[in-house]
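Researcher: Here's my situation. A collaborator sent me these components and asked whether they could plausibly form a single complex. I don't have experimental data yet, so a predicted model of the whole assembly would be a useful starting point for our discussion.
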Amino acid sequence: MNVTNTIRQLRSWSAVNKGPRRVFVPTMGALHQGHAALIHAAREIAGQSGNVIVSIFVNPTQFGPNEDFEKYPRTLVEDLAICRDHGADMIFAPKVDEIYPPDRSVQITETSLSKALCGATRPGHFEGVVTVVTKLFNLVQADDAVFGKKDYQQLAIITRLVRDLDFNVTLHGIDTVREDDGLAMSSRNRYLSAEERAQAPALRAALVSAREAWKKGESDPDALEKLIADHIKAHAPLGRIDYISAVDASNLQAISATTQLVVVAVAVFFGKARLIDNIELK
Ligand code: PAF
């Protein structure tokens, strides 16, 4: 496995490692079993003669001024071990000034899907995500890229990015990996106190109960959202609900007569940890 923090070395490596398929896994590090599943999936897509590139970059432009950029866990040594164990070929782990010139003046903005859900309470977040993903796509020049479905809105927005800006990359959404009690794996779970950690699985349980209600015929988004809120309030009193939203999965807008798939997404603060999760209603 190769590791670099420079664009120049990434490009030199890419010039001589032209396997039949190059698969990219963008991450911010602090890797866990959810990321391991992404790298594993990338390896399967690439095949033994293809190449898997993982980026590890805590992207400052996707953090708001009062968010956890400075405190975001940075665990490069452990991250490299996970990458190696799951078959990555190249790790690109640049410093901030390698990615962003100090006088940068161009950014990418998605103007529709990013208004809802996390975008409504994290202004500027998706500009940062879409801009860095654009830059990483340009640098890595992959045939395929792998993203987790836990960040459902992110994947939907990047799908639009690829379509609208004609990136020649195939996206793969990978199912959320969960702890035994249902909590979605997240780099931010390590912020939880023991008490918060004990209550956090209520997010998943609430979403599952909404899916049960949906299967029994409840289709009113307000009723589904209330059911989830009531569950979280009852089982996770330390949680502070940021949003609960049942939307059309294709555009993240209000459910309409043309909606084919509904997704319910939630964000809940436990102390300084903001946890997200979602469920598709089928
Ligand atoms: O999902 C993440 O870890 C980040 O948002 C991403 C896609 C690596 C961009 O910084």
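Model: Some features of this prediction you could bring to your collaborator: The beta strands are 2-4, 22-27, 51-56, 90-92, 144-148, 170-174, 239-248, 262-270, 273-281. The radius of gyration is 19 Å.
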